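[audit] Reproducing an earlier prediction to check determinism. Same input, same settings, fresh worker. If the tokens differ from the archived copy the diff job will pick it up downstream; this log only records the rerun itself.
[audit] input (270 residues):
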Amino acid sequence: MFRLQSLFDFYIKSSIHVALSVYALVRMTQFMFEIPYDKPISFFAFFGTIVGYNFVKYDALARAKKRQMRKELKVIAAFSFLCFVAVGVSFFMLERVTQMVAVGVLILTMLYTLPFFPNRKNARNWAGVKIYIVSLCWVGVTLLLPLVDAHQGLGLDFYLKCIQRFILVFDLILIFEIIDLKNDDPHLKTVPQQIGVKRTKLLGLLLLLPFYFLEFFKSHFIEKQLVVNLILVVILSLFLVFANEKRSRYYTSFWVESVPIIWWLMVVFL
């Protein structure tokens, strides 16, 4: 039992679960725009998420708490290195234009992680900016990259999906910020810190209205997708309503991050 718990914790801490969520959204994009399954872009998104998230999470921690985290960090670092190799292989299998867009997303991620200017904090610590940068990165990786690599035109449906995808990720991060409210640095000025938990939940619920109804403005929409999206809205609403600072870390790191995977599975089976 203890070994299973350790494996599950490694699955969460090594960012495999969040990478599956990104992979699921890439597959959703391929489904929505009728793009054949593309292994290079799917693998690039999956392994790239593991590398990016682990670097963001453990870069500062590795330097600040080397003794406490030494063994665990070594395992995660070795795993991340293997994923980095996989990212490199996948990257060189992408179209040239896709590689250029991917570099742009990488720069945005690095801006979020590393201080580019002397005596300045990285974007992760810029007041109120974190949630927008992360949401934009997810939109870029899960929506823009698959379409560019498939040489799809970026028409009205693309822009509508960009807004929907941004709202989805934004709402997911709101739940994280509610759970982490007591641990976050007040200078971060997260949404709950600025407007309070109740208003944050209300904001998240209100954003689900355009998320759902934008589907009707697509050039062509599938009726079953409306049903799937409605179920997704209900699930997200419940996670928002019941989010609080006393929830276990698995509430967000596993269950909330499972939402994109659930969305994809609903599409596959329905």
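[audit] rerun output stored. Observation attached for the diff report: The mean pLDDT is 84.
[audit] end
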